[in-house]
Design brief:
Blueprint lengths: L9 H12 L2 H13 L3 H29 L3 H9 L2 H39 L6 H5 L3 H20 L1 H29 L4 H9 L9 H13 L7 H6 L8 H32 L14 H15 L2 H36 L4 H21 L1 H31 L2 H9 L9 H26 L1
Helix pairs in contact: 1-8, 1-12, 1-14, 2-10, 2-12, 3-4, 3-10, 3-12, 3-16, 3-18, 4-5, 5-7, 5-14, 5-15, 5-16, 7-8, 7-14, 7-15, 8-12, 8-14, 9-12, 12-13, 13-14, 14-15, 15-16, 16-18
Amino acid sequence: MATRGEFSSRIGFVLAAAGSAVGLGNIWGFPTQVATNGGAAFVLVYLLLAFVLAYPVLMAELIIGRSTRSNMVDALTKISGNVTGTLTGLWGCLTVSGILAFYAIVGGWMLSFFLDGIVRALGLNDLSPWITEFSTSRNILFCLCFMIMTAGIVLGGVKSGIEKWSVRLMPSLVVIILALIVYVSLQPGAGEGWAAYLLPDFSRVTDPDLLISAMGQAFFSMSLGVGTMLVYGSYVSKKENLPSIGMWVALVDIGVAIIAGMLIIPAMYVALNNGVEIFNADGALIDGDQLIFTVLPALFNTIGTVGIYVSIAFFALMVIASLTSSISMLEVPVAYLVENHKKKRSTAVWIMAAIIFVSSCTIILNFDALFVLVITATTEYSQPLLGLVLCIFAGWVWRRNAILEELKDGFAEAEHSVFWKIWPWYVKFVCPVVIFLMFTRSVL
């Protein structure tokens, strides 16, 4: 079998892993959660929980991945020494494939709105309605395009595919966000948005719903539980300091979420100033797909010709955010097929891309029944439970000495570090309890 891929640089890994973590949730979910949950007070709670909950689980995945140098199924099988690890790994591959099946549909929508801006800039306005209106044919076509783009990157492997494109896409994403922040901040109404985003309402900090929301955002925003970070960790050099590199991934992910808020919330208040409705029936800010595909396009339409170019830039940003996440998701089952079933990478990529595309088409053809159901089953139920199981593997199943030996590669003083004094018992006792409470609170 060919030699396993490996990230060629620290920055390549950090940008790829942060790209996996930086997805649509950071851009359309985090900002409105902040604005409706106490502004900067929510940001402070989120930052705290990102490091007391998400970072330890992220480290568990990275350590397991680099130690075993394996895909999720083989890695957990090696640690457990029995079928429990195998079944958990397969569960992770199935969950991440399910997430990608609906994510590819949404990525296709982003692609269609990006193309719509280009079409309108060229004066081909007659094409615009078909490109943007919800229809089965349009959904399938753009979902297919998105999956082909995702597969095309993963085909290149770790260094020539995932790393090469991550170090191009992630800086582009940040540059586009910053440019749009400057533009939007100069528009009438932006000041109210900045106030809603940044002014803290500390009376909300003890609200259980705020804490659950912040906890969920911190956990899910780092792509934890489904094996993406485990597989990326398996491609990290033994020379790297894992606690340090994991910290950088967390910081970049959190940073992008925060600057996304600096764009989205002021933009919503600019839209309000221009006569666009930004609140739903119960008075909360509109979020999710309605924000991205209704409120913001309406805003772009109110600012004249320049709005077309702002729309192109914004949806380019959304396509990039979608792609950096989708390539990490596709890599999880691809790595399993390559290493466990000895498939050529090209064969594995196209097999998995085809299976996931067929799954996406099934969802599209039964949209009302399946779309929300698949999202709920994978992200609200399966993903947190997988995170819980990974904590149990890292804290209870895997030998503590083996973990320490792995950390010492690239971090000789690991045994005497603050990280080692806290992390082993923390991931063993605290994380499973917190994740379990978060899960039960969210589903009951």
